[in-house]
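hey m, so remember when u said the tokens were messed up on ur end? i reran from scratch. heres the input so u can diff it against urs
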Amino acid sequence: MKARVALLFSTLCALPALGNSDFPPFDPSPWLGKARTTLQTQLDAYRGLCVRRISHAVATLTPDFKQNEELTNQVCDCTTTHFRREKNVNYVQVVNLELRGARASLPPMPTELSLYVANYNDAELECVNTIAAKHNESTRRLKPNAAKPVVKSPRRPTSSSRRPAR
């Protein structure tokens, strides 16, 4: 799925570059604004949105606050790494709009921008599944040692507790 989305997006982006004058260059400013923004600025905004979004979902895995915070940070770090690999400010900006709920107040987004949200959902799901699998594996390794049952040896009768046979 991810490969198909990337191929479709790269094809759509390449059309104006091929000299096809039927397609005007894509202008995302009606949805993203005209102000210039940096990747780091958008990633900082994303980090806050990610922590708020993911921490609620992670809370269902474990009641331990410190462990929740650690898992949340791991998922947010994973998705941030995904954004850094893509090196696309518009991508992060569209995802931030989606996570804030601001996308609903905008006109319908063109396919070029909607694909960012679909690609992000795939990347986030991959990160969550990877982190959850690591978490489950580590808790499985800890459980046998942490939850060893205490086996009591059977009581042997003492001389004072013996009853005479009838």
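this time it looks ok to me. The first helix runs from residue 2 to 14. if urs says something different then somethings off w ur setup not the seq
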